[in-house]
């Protein structure tokens, strides 16, 4: 059964909607800069330059929850715009998140520690599942709602699960993706792991030191052909392949040989029934940590051998948006196919010595992009790959 | 020296949240890292850097140097003695 | 799909296929369980409670030889809970707000899916693994996902519901329910499978020794 993408939505530091993202990717303009909050002002981060109140106001959101929930609502709403709810189209929401309502919990925790006042009800926002419920509420969807929390591969896994639920006949149409807000929690955490670069992150560069954190949300709407017949939606691309594999190496580090990533990439190509030469662009996970980029490069070399397709990491534009990354990058993959663009891997100077692989360093117009492979690898050794293709 | 070692064991348990262990479970010369000893890894090495700085005022700029210093309670104690 | 083995651990004790294996006396019952199982896996002591309980409940299944079938055929791992890594999240927040030093070894465990990573590392399983957040144990979601796993062509799925939650009075509530599913056995349809799963967990929670194959 074929699965079609009929809607895309995005919000991150480089745009409040898909068009703004596309324009910024073409203009090669990173959204990463000094943060504007007490916990982020000393660092380079990819913040969405709108407060929670501004988000609610500008996007006329019905819900007022955690920032993770609000960002998710903005992107999911854009993806679902133009789609109508119908009883004969069973519609679900599957969203990935890693921090959930941590931003709300942090504020509550501080107020408790400082003056002993506790608004327990606020902690209901903490639960990761809450942001997905809020998205469903915002869209008026009362069917299947699910949350996946597998760190930075959460959104890719949500997309994969959505595809399977359509194939299994459980749903006709699903809004899938991920959302995560920036918080002191994640900044402190990645700094403590010493994989947080205080300068611009440099994916796939020999001098890379770590990631820049970002925030945002990316969602796509996927539908079966039967659903499109009823909804009349316009297809933008096809979702062709997906896979997840375990790296079984370390809680946070990728294996030196990229075994889990290799499994994930090759299995997704099997699901899509594609050969290496059918892939025209790889949107890499490319976090710019020394460990990920080397491990991912080795996996790409394993699968593609001498004929490595053009590849790049767009994380130097958006920062690493954690659970949202796979959603945003799925949107970028659809844009690449729709408009025929390879997006720049910003800040790249020198190839990693061990691999000599050079990513696409400038956003480049090409004749056609048939299939894009997008990687999302998470802590826990949770490696996922999805493949989007032309209609 | 033996007092320093006992303190170190308690601090290691505290810093790494090893709530299952008591200082008596950590032998002076047993390797702290790898599957033979406490099963610690690179993430825990970062905790040792914090521990040395906050409890003993010793800074280790290059985490890759840590492996030798953090080999065992004995080597940690010797390093602290010679750097204070 | 058919449940071939199940285990359940909480402060009340450890159960395998409905039979109580251990009772716990210590406050640190996870360490006690580790000792009772005679494990020698130093990494265990570094883990958060979610990972510890999952390792223990898996070992319990292993202890009876029920997992041997998987030695050459890695299982898919499907796990879920309602509160993600909330217990460790709170400890990590304390490390940077109160002590001023964010702890990397705590941060590692502020993701619930690290527990599937821990299982993969211990048993060298390279298969698919995922972690869901649902308001409560959702047997029909497991049934749906198991159906996907079967369609994919897998033989085994190790599933779990693992919770470690701390409330505002610092009271910790913990349980771990594991069930091993043979995907190729088609004796039960999805809805009767889900109903059996609910009953099994209810029995464990009530301390009843339910018979798995009833």
UniProtKB/TrEMBL annotation, chain A:
Pfam families: ketoacyl-synt, Ketoacyl-synt_C. Keywords: Transferase. Residues 1-390 form the Ketosynthase family 3 (KS3) domain. GO terms for cellular component: cytosol. SMART domains: PKS_KS. The keyword Transferase applies. GO terms for biological process: fatty acid biosynthetic process. Belongs to the thiolase-like superfamily. Beta-ketoacyl-ACP synthases family. PANTHER family: 3-OXOACYL-[ACYL-CARRIER-PROTEIN] SYNTHASE, MITOCHONDRIAL, POLYKETIDE SYNTHASE-RELATED. This is Beta-ketoacyl-[acyl-carrier-protein] synthase family protein. It comes from Taishania pollutisoli.
From TrEMBL, chain B:
SUPFAM superfamilies: ACP-like. Pfam families: PP-binding. Residues 2-84 form the Carrier domain. InterPro entries: ACP-like_sf (IPR036736), PP-bd_ACP (IPR009081). This is Acyl carrier protein. It comes from Taishania pollutisoli.
UniProtKB/TrEMBL annotation, chain C:
This is 3-oxoacyl-ACP synthase. It comes from Taishania pollutisoli.
